[in-house]
Write a structure and sequence with these properties.
- It contains 18 helices and 13 strands.
- It has about 475 residues and is an alpha+beta fold.
- It has a five-stranded mixed β-sheet. The chain has a three-stranded mixed β-sheet with strand order 1-7-8, with no helix packed on it.
- Strand 7 (about 350) and strand 8 (about 355) form a beta hairpin.
- Bound molecules: protoporphyrin IX containing FE (HEM).
- Protoporphyrin IX containing FE binds next to helix 12 and helix 18.
Length: about 475
């Protein structure tokens, strides 16, 4: 058996607690009010707890928020553990079952290798100017004094960005239609009660165009039609000079020389469009909230941005230390993903003095790790300085997970977050429309600001 090191005198096996209460009630609480559910368990069961009400896998499910345990699991998730794609089947109605998120083992690894270059280094620089321009174009739709929800605005921006990364140009009538239908589709799962549909298979029944699942199925069909039409157009008009992800996927061949089929292409595009815009939109909306909630943070950030001058390149902006710290603290204080994807023990393992049976499923709890007082003193405060005075390990700051399923879009997400926040704050003025604090609530499988961050557009800024 492989173990983590134990401090001297610690007993070799400690029990894992379970949250109290009836399973169904715990499940409803987790779906309808996940923040409360997680915070309540933290008080009783700080590092590990066992839960069978979350809807993942078949065997015992253990949730951990201890960095040592996270490191043990995630750094061995190709050896002692594995991360079966089929455990993410909750997402299948939205993204099908042939994308990187649903694949396992070697096929998963191969698909990641195929996707990774689109989100790194040189490619990011190409997207830099585009991100700033798309942000400006969306802001141009607002007039001075107009109230708006920051999350709606950032969703527009991030959807256009990911669409151009995935499909190339965003300006065709079809890409506009894809973005419109996609927004309508994800908005269907925007509230905790509508998210019930994802968790309870019995609610996934099409009772006609006005029933909740019926609406979803029809919108998904519309989206599929549009995406398949785009794939077929590309097949009939091949263009080697295109650098977008769809072109790259279409050109790719497996080790056996096979091309991806239409369904595989559709599922991958859907997964990237979904994962790539919902999350980032929420993160940027939170950054707008926190910087406007705390004027001293905004002032410091503006001073840093102004020091660069108006001609600064996206690369220079993205390298700014305080901007980087603000974005990290946003993802720390208001994480978008509550958990990593599941990892399953192949054999019996011992982690920090606890023994776990083979087939135990583990979820890393990003939400609770980011609330640990031993890592983030005064954890409810928004303090970007934390990230300037201390270096956090990738198992302490874990917004994007780690190991074999670490977020493929992490670099793009962070780059995009910095450039959109920098463009918004350095060029325009905003205020929060309400003094009331924003709280996090479920949006599909993620957390998002409950009121969408209501703001007022105050016009152009003259630094
Ligand atoms: C702030 C924005 C984002 C956050 C917080 C986020 C968070 C995460 C997390 C926590 C995971 C699971 C990691 C694990 O289990 O270890 C993940 C996986 C993933 N993310 Fe992101 N993500 C973000 C943006 C993006 C973007 C822009 C894309 C772009 C396409 C993307 C695509 C994916 C994909 C495809 C996976 C699955 C990887 C796999 O199964 O191998 N994400 N993300």
């Amino acid at each position: 058996m492989i173990k983590t090191a134990l401090p001297p005198n610690q007993p070799t096996t400690q029990p894992i607690g379970k949250p109290p209460g009836v399973r169904l009630l715990r499940q409803l609480k987790w779906i309808l009010d996940p923040v409360n559910y997680l915070e309540a368990t933290k008080a009783e069961l700080p590092d590990f707890f066992e839960e069978d009400a979350l809807g993942f896998g078949e065997g015992p499910l253990v949730i951990t928020s201890h960095p040592e345990a996270l490191q043990f699991i995630l750094s061995r998730d190709r050896t002692l553990f594995h991360s079966p794609g089929e455990f993410n089947r909750l997402l299948a109605p939205l993204i099908g079952d042939a994308s990187v998120i649903m694949l396992s083992g070697d096929r998963h690894k191969e698909r990641r290798q195929l996707l990774a270059p689109a989100f790194h280094g040189d490619r990011l620089e190409v997207y830099g100017q585009l991100i700033c321009q798309l942000t400006e174009a969306v802001i141009a739709e607002l007039s001075e004094g107009e109230p708006f929800a920051a999350r709606k605005l950032t969703q527009k921006v991030s959807l256009q960005i990911i669409s151009s990364v995935v499909f190339g140009l965003t300006d065709s009538p079809r890409s506009h239609e894809i973005m419109r239908v996609l927004t309508d589709t994800v908005d269907l799962f925007g509230s905790p009660t509508s998210a019930l549909m994802l968790f309870f298979g019995g609610l996934q029944t099409d009772l006609g165009a006005w029933s909740p699942w019926g609406q979803f199925v029809r919108r998904r069909q519309q989206l599929d039609d549009l995406i398949y039409a785009e794939i077929r157009d590309r097949q009939s008009n091949p263009d080697d000079s295109r650098k977008d992800i769809l072109s790259m996927l279409m050109a790719a061949r497996t080790e056996d020389g096979e091309a991806l089929g239409e369904t595989e292409l559709r599922d991958e595009l859907m997964a990237l469009l979904m994962a790539g815009h919902e999350t980032t939109a929420t993160a940027i909306a939170w950054a707008m909230y926190w910087t406007h909630k705390q004027p001293e943070v905004k002032a410091k950030l503006l001073a840093e941005l102004d020091s660069l001058g108006p001609e600064a390149s996206p690369t220079e902006i993205a390298a700014l230390p305080y901007l980087t710290a603000v974005c990290k603290e946003t993802l720390r204080r208001s994480p978008v993903a509550m958990f990593t994807f599941p990892r399953v023990a192949k054999t019996e393992v011992e982690i920090m003095g606890r023994t776990f049976a083979p087939q135990t499923t583990f979820l890393g709890c990003i939400f609770l790790t980011h609330q640990r007082e031993d890592l983030y003193p005064n954890h409810t405060a928004f303090l970007p300085e934390r990230f300037l005075t201390r270096k956090y390990s990738p198992y302490e700051f874990i917004a994007f997970g780690n190991g074999s399923r670490r977020c493929v879009g992490e670099a793009l997400a962070q780059y995009e977050m910095k450039l959109v926040v920098a463009t918004l704050l350095s060029r325009y003025r905003f205020s929060l429309a309400s003094e009331q604090p924003e709280i996090a609530k479920r949006r599909g499988v993620t957390l998002a600001p409950a009121k969408g961050v209501p703001m007022i557009f105050q016009g152009k800024r003259n630094p």
